[in-house]
Q: What sequence folds into this?
């Protein structure tokens, strides 16, 4: 047993947001800001390795899964003391979405019935370290009260699809006595997985189900018996009954039941249209053919997996040789979301403000139904609580009285410079606990920037108590609209200017030869590398690592793709996958120097990236 006691009082100041001019996030619409000063706030505990799922235990403690360490940890909600209940030995952990994910309790846990079961979802590696072949499984553990450990693992289902992105992984115990498990589409057709076929619309055959071949479960929500088998009353879809309860999902990280049995789901969109859904048995939710509603706004499905082999996947505009489908071309059955965050017109500058952090999505990481009752948080009554990764904000989305539709836009509460991963309420219904990621990018709350990789409370659980004394969260602005960014609100907002200006020199992007010393084919590689090194350290190292290797982003050391200077220039300028675009934040010379440094470090020897090559790619 490992116990670690934190000192909450010493950490409380890290939560304070005292500057009324702090910018929280860019949104395409104004988002109201709740009065967070009604909450006392403190850091409950720290040092968690990417907490993923929290559950309130019947022992009055918070149980949390730690994705990267593979631990189930119990946390005292008052002192923050930690106790490890389980350390997985077979978990496979990667940069973002692999590892120990969801957790659910049998409702009779610690009730003396013998059903002391805890259900965990996590990834394993069926390949090697050099050639990983990840898969996911759901395992039932038994809580041993004498040992205070989770013991006797029983694999309920194995061989579920998993990969290096978008594994979703929420595990929920339903009011019908069934297990529900969400699986993302593993980032197929996106970023580093562009050539992987997207299977969110693909359904299993009867033969595949009989052979326990679950590969088509990608982009689905599953419903399972408690022994992992297929429930007899599961929907029959296209003539086949399987574990699949619904399909056509992208990355459904939020999954929770309302008191009447309604199953709510929060789902990541691509660059727009995060979705809030009510899950119907057998329902098709449209992905990848549709993002949000069928409205042909700011989304076209480009099937990169069928692109010709010789096509550069960063090419812009997309050539006709790659299959492309507007949303209106999808004629299958589809269940509409009850809300999207957000739908924008085609001319919205996606990727151009500060990269994906400023795109019109919130990155919903979980969802929780909330009723205030007599003593709860009145302002949140009859709502869904949605923690957000990009904004470090708890969005409170009010519902209609019957809980079937969204009522207006959400209200932003409890904003800090963090990535919020999960939320639970204490038994008093007015103490809120929010778990934070240990690393990643988020909206910047202080200074002039819009995005940052500096998280104020990484790997922590934050505690907010409604109506208690000692409120410290100031009235930070809930959002900055696109119109405000264009008008200069926040000033120099990390690339929000119409034209990039070097704050040190006042020079604009792509300055003249007289203003800037261009990098040319004749430039000395060592000299350019020396110029690029500090700029890489300032701009890139926090994600890619000081030695070109990191769990947070693509590995640059020994990357053969860096031999193509046009590829390097395009990716830095226009972004790729999770990497933001830097065309509005860095001059052509800056990019040439950084690109040359990357192309000639950590075993790479590819020569200079010239200023002219960057200019051509711009």
A:
């Amino acid at each position: 047993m490992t116990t670690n006691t934190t000192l909450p009082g010493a950490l409380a100041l890290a939560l304070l947001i005292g500057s009324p001019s702090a910018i929280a996030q860019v949104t395409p619409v104004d988002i109201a800001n709740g009065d967070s000063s009604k909450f006392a706030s403190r850091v409950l505990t720290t040092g968690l390795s990417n907490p993923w799922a929290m559950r309130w235990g019947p022992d009055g403690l918070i149980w949390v899964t730690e994705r990267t360490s593979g631990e189930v940890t119990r946390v005292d909600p008052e002192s923050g003391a930690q106790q490890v209940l389980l350390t997985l030995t077979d978990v496979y952990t990667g940069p973002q979405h692999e590892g120990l994910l969801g957790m659910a309790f049998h409702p009779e846990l610690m009730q003396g019935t013998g059903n002391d079961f805890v259900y965990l979802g996590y990834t394993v590696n069926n390949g090697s370290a050099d050639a990983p072949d990840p898969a996911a499984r759901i395992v039932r553990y038994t809580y041993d009260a004498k040992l205070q450990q989770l013991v006797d693992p029983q694999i309920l289902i194995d061989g579920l699809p998993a990969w290096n992105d978008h594994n979703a992984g929420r595990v929920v115990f339903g009011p019908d006595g069934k297990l529900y498990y969400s699986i993302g589409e593993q980032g197929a057709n996106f970023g580093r997985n562009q050539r992987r076929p997207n299977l969110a619309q693909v359904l299993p055959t009867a033969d595949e189900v009989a052979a326990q071949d679950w590969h088509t479960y990608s982009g689905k929500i599953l419903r399972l018996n408690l022994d992992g088998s297929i429930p007899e009353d599961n929907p029959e879809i296209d003539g086949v009954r399987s574990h699949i309860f619904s399909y056509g999902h992208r990355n459904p990280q939020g999954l929770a039941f309302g008191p009447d049995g309604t199953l709510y789901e929060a789902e990541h969109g691509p660059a727009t249209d995060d979705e809030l859904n009510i899950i119907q048995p057998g329902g098709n939710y449209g992905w990848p053919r549709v993002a949000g509603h069928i409205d042909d706004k700011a989304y076209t499905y480009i099937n990169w997996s069928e692109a010709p082999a010789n096509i550069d996947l960063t090419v812009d505009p997309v050539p006709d040789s790659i299959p492309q489908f507007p949303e209106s071309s999808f004629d299958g059955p589809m269940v509409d979301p009850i809300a999207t965050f957000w739908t924008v017109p085609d001319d919205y500058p996606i990727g151009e403000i500060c990269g994906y952090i400023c795109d019109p999505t919130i990155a919903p990481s979980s969802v929780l139904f909330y009723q205030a009752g007599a003593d709860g948080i009145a302002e949140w009554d009859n709502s869904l609580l949605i923690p957000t990764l990009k904004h470090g904000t708890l969005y409170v989305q009010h519902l209609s009285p019957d809980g079937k539709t969204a009522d207006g836009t959400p209200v932003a509460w409890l904003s800090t410079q963090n990535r919020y991963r999960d939320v639970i309420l204490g038994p008093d219904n007015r103490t809120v606990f929010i778990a934070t990621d240990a690393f990643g990018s988020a909206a910047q709350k202080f200074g002039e920037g819009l995005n940052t990789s500096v998280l104020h409370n990484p790997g922590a659980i934050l505690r907010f108590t409604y109506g208690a004394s000692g409120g410290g969260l100031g009235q930070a602005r809930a959002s900055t609209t696109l119109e405000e960014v264009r008008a200069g609100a926040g000033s120099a907002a990390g690339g929000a200017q119409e034209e990039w200006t070097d704050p040190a020199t006042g020079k604009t992007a792509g300055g003249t030869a007289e203003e800037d010393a261009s990098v040319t084919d004749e430039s000395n590689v060592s000299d350019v590398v020396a110029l690029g090194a500090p700029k890489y350290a300032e701009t890139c190292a926090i994600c890619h690592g000081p030695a070109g290797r990191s769990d947070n982003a693509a590995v640059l050391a020994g990357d053969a793709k860096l031999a193509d200077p046009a590829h390097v220039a395009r990716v830095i300028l226009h972004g790729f996958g999770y990497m933001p675009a830097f065309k509005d934040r860095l001059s052509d010379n800056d990019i040439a120097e950084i690109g040359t440094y990357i192309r000639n470090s950590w075993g790479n020897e590819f020569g200079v990236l010239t200023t002219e090559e960057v200019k051509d790619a711009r």
Observations:
- The chain has two domains: 3-484, 499-617.
- DSSP finds eight helices and 34 strands in the chain.
- Residues 3-484 form a domain with the Neuraminidase fold (CATH 2.120.10.30).
- The two ends are 56 Å apart (CA to CA).
